[in-house]
Amino acid sequence: MSDQSKTLSVEQIANSRSDTVNRRFSVAPMMDWTTSDCRVFHRLMSRHAVLYTEMVTTGALIHGDAARHLAYDNSEHPVALQLGGSNPQELAQCARMAQEWGYDEVNLNVGCPSDRVQNNMIGACLMAHPQRVADCLAEMQAAVRIPVTVKHRLGIDDLDSFEHLHRFVETVKTSGCNSFTIHARKAILDGLSPKENRDIPPLMYDRVYRIKQLFPELEIIINGGIKTLEECDTHLQHVDGVMIGREAYQNPWPLLSQADSRYFNDAHTIADRMAIAEAFIPHLERRLAEGAPLYAVIKHLLGLFHGQRGGKQFRRFLSENGHQREAGVDIYREALARVAPQDLL
């Protein structure tokens, strides 16, 4: 974050951004994937898509290196911090930190199914405790002026009926939170890994649509298994926004390069894939100067040339050579030379 942003008062930041978050199209928080480097890359393709951080636990911010978890590049706006936790006072404290650092939104994770977070009463297990979620969101909202939102599943384990989902939303909305992002799968906490929970439980988009029908006053954003803009268009006939997950990471160009003109009425000129790759170099050089390993930064670009001639060679070269101790920008440029420019779409 720049020195200029740090000098803004909390009230100035809140006043300037609290009404600017348009969640019609966003990229989901994904552990180990949606780092600051990834978000800088994504921002080169879309000016308006809302970008979410990886989930950060309240403990990591309160008892750990908060600056390491909260630092980001100013180009990332609009950017939202996703928090994991279940203690209302701790979440409120961390929400204040998010506001002080200039985040445009703070989001509560009620969807992560991993054993590690369950043991700390974080993530999807909170779907069994809707009043606790409401209490957390109420405290967070009382602490800040930036938007406070929630992301959750359809249900968990045997608490998977539509009636339970309805009661959950009905209870949580009493907190004053009016933006719900719903991953259209339930989570199976006993027996499935986090990876399996992203694929095995069936998608039930119609349940998300029904929630919007029953709570028209709420902003309902749908997430889960969405891969194309055409699918986004279909969902937007029923809900207020779409959140893209793995596809935005693994094949970002078709989605992010068209999002602004399609969903934000901004038809600015979009550079081609190679120009985007080259535009990332100044950021890469800064990160290398800070001591970041090459591969840790450029791994987020491996899907840029998905489906293009030379795309596999690009990925292979970086995967095989990017881990070298002294690897620098020259390795990245060599990888780019393996892509055929005339075939770029």
From TrEMBL:
Keywords: Flavoprotein, FMN, NADP, Oxidoreductase, RNA-binding, tRNA processing, tRNA-binding. The active site is at 112 (proton donor). The record marks 109, 195, 198, 315 as: Interacts with tRNA. HAMAP family: DusA_subfam. CDD domains: DUS_like_FMN (cd02801). FMN binds at residues 29-31, 82, 151, 183, 223-225, 245-246. It holds the Pfam family Dus. Belongs to the dus family. Its EC number is 1.3.1.91. The keyword Nucleotide-binding does not apply. Catalyzes the synthesis of 5,6-dihydrouridine (D), a modified base found in the D-loop of most tRNAs, via the reduction of the C5-C6 double bond in target uridines. Specifically modifies U20 and U20a in tRNAs. Its cofactor is FMN. Residues 27-329 form the DUS-like FMN-binding domain. GO terms for molecular function: tRNA-dihydrouridine20 synthase activity. The lineage of its organism: Bacteria, Pseudomonadati, Pseudomonadota, Gammaproteobacteria, Oceanospirillales. It catalyses: 5,6-dihydrouridine(20) in tRNA + NAD(+) = uridine(20) in tRNA + NADH + H(+); 5,6-dihydrouridine(20a) in tRNA + NADP(+) = uridine(20a) in tRNA + NADPH + H(+); 5,6-dihydrouridine(20a) in tRNA + NAD(+) = uridine(20a) in tRNA + NADH + H(+); 5,6-dihydrouridine(20) in tRNA + NADP(+) = uridine(20) in tRNA + NADPH + H(+). The keyword tRNA processing applies. This is tRNA-dihydrouridine(20/20a) synthase. PROSITE patterns: UPF0034. Transmembrane segments: none annotated.
